[in-house]
Every structure is written in structure tokens, then in C-alpha cells.
């Protein structure tokens, strides 16, 4: 039996972008572009009439701000939304807010030469829209919280205070689509003196610093953008600088960050597999690996290597994942020691870290 193509509504104030996205998406037999809209008010009427499976939504539009429209949509008629965002610091912050409101993923729109920029990423755009069609979206519960506080929708759990030596445990976490919010949920529940955490999130280079700053504001741990050769310490979480891989290397009794600008792995830079394989090699049984929501299979083989090295492994469960691509791939590979709901992942990481090696 053939599967019906996913129906897409394109919402963008640029006629050029609407035309380009229509051509790119309609070129895939698994996608049907059912309509376009130049602003959110027109989009609202077309959503009622066309009943799309996925919406692509520009952030900056006339008559209604894209974030305000997204917030209303996720409260009243939740749909998978892929944001179209500019590669600027302001665009990065707005996109992170959109992901906090429930957008599944985002497509980066270059400031210059939009035509060639979008065409160059045609395959990725198609893949993200098709993944969004399979994503789980939930109604946005709003209780009068101002947008500036939207990242704190989930309260931090009361975790026990812990005491670790520098090389006792090392936690490695990888994520992709849906991961910006999943990582926030995990980190805001970790105690200030938790073992060191090394992270990889698929995100454009220009988004990395605003993302690190956002995580740091909502975590008792110190979240920082790693520098090459930096010592990895308890109570700290490290993400690679934008568009670069991060590895863990051993330096005597401690670990350090190694940052490199090597080629993309699994089509990603940074790649989860790059980080996980270095953790398996240099931390072995001291490692705890976790894969959160994400599209594709990056990290699955690296997680298996952590498991084979004697480390604990877990993945986010399907029910709480926005996209169960990466966690599902790890389960199928036999790399996942546990499958855990998002709200319990921090608790399990702390419990596993407290076990004797």
C-alpha cells in the first residue's frame, strides 16, 4: 500500500522563498505542497481549509510576528512546524525561542544569495520536512508566562548533591532535532556538582554561542563553549564551538577537550559519533553515553562503542522524543542499555554516575 505524501503549507513573506521552497519540496514524491501564504493571518485561513501535515514558517513577517503566530498555533491547533530562520545572532535567539515553543526543527536562510543558499541545502530541507511530518507535537500549556521566561516551562527537579573526583565519571550526550529543548530539560535538572558533561547538538555555527548562553542560564552547572585543550571538570558542561567537532582526549589523570575543523561525519559537524568514539576510547567504563531526540542515525555507532568499552548507555524513549531517529537507530543497533523518558534522564544519569566503576 502506498503512503500518502505529507501535505505542506509554506508561510513566508518573500515570494522568492515561497517559490523556491515550493519547487524544492514538490520535487520529492513524498511531499505535496498544498499551498503558500505571505503572512500568518492568511496562513490561519489556509490551515483551516487545507489541513496541512507540516508548516514551514518564516520568523519575520508582516501583520503578525512569526513567534506570536507559532505560540497561538501550538496552543490551539498543534502542528509540526519547521522554522525558516536567518543565520544571524538575532535569528539564532529567535529560532531557539521558536524551538522552546514547540517548533520541530529549522532551516537556515542565508542573508545573501538566498536562491543558491536554499538550493544547496535542498536535500536537507526535504529530509527535515518529511521528518517533521512524523514528529510528535503537543499542545503548548501557557499560564501567563512572558515569552522571556518560556524556557523554564519545566521546573528543575530536586537532585541530591553529589561529590565526584575529576575522572570518576564522564557523561556524553548527543542530540539533533528537538534536542535544544531536550538538553535544556536534562541540564536544568542536573546538580551543580554533577560529573562533567560533554555535549554535541546538531546546530549551525552561528547558533552555538546563543545556545550555550541559553543553557547556562537554566542550569546549576556551568555550561560553556569549549576551547581546544581546555580541562574537563566536574560541574561543567561543554559544547563545541559552532561548526567544529569536539573530542575528548586523556591527559594523565584528567580529560581535555580537543577541537578540530575536520570534515563532516554522518553529514554533520559537529557529529555525535566523533565525540562518542573519543569518549569510548579515553573514558571507557567511566563513561555514560546518552542519545536524545534527533533525526538520522548519528551517534548510534559511537554509543555502541561506549557500551562495548564498559560504559553505561541510555536513549530517550519514543513517546517523549520529537523525532525518534537517532535514539531508535541506537536501539536497533543494540547500543542502548536503557530507554528512558525525557523527564527521567537526568535522574538516571545521576544514579548511574553514583555507581562504582
Structure characteristics:
five-stranded parallel β-sheet; 357 residues; Rossmann fold; alpha/beta; elongated
Write the layout of secondary structure elements.
Elements lengths: L5 E6 L3 H12 L4 E7 L2 H11 L3 E5 L7 H11 L4 E6 L2 H13 L3 E5 L4 H7 L1 H12 L36 E6 L3 H9 L8 E6 L6 H10 L4 E4 L10 E4 L5 E7 L2 E7 L11 H12 L3 E5 L8 H9 L3 E5 L9 H8 L4 E3 L1 H13 L3
Parallel strand pairs: 1-2, 1-3, 3-4, 4-5, 6-7, 6-12, 7-9, 8-9, 12-13, 13-14
Antiparallel strand pairs: 10-11
Helix pairs in contact: 1-5, 3-4, 7-12, 9-10, 10-11
Family: Belongs to the CheB family.
Catalytic activity: L-glutaminyl-[protein] + H2O = L-glutamyl-[protein] + NH4(+); [protein]-L-glutamate 5-O-methyl ester + H2O = L-glutamyl-[protein] + methanol + H(+)
GO molecular function: phosphorelay response regulator activity; protein-glutamate methylesterase activity; protein-glutamine glutaminase activity
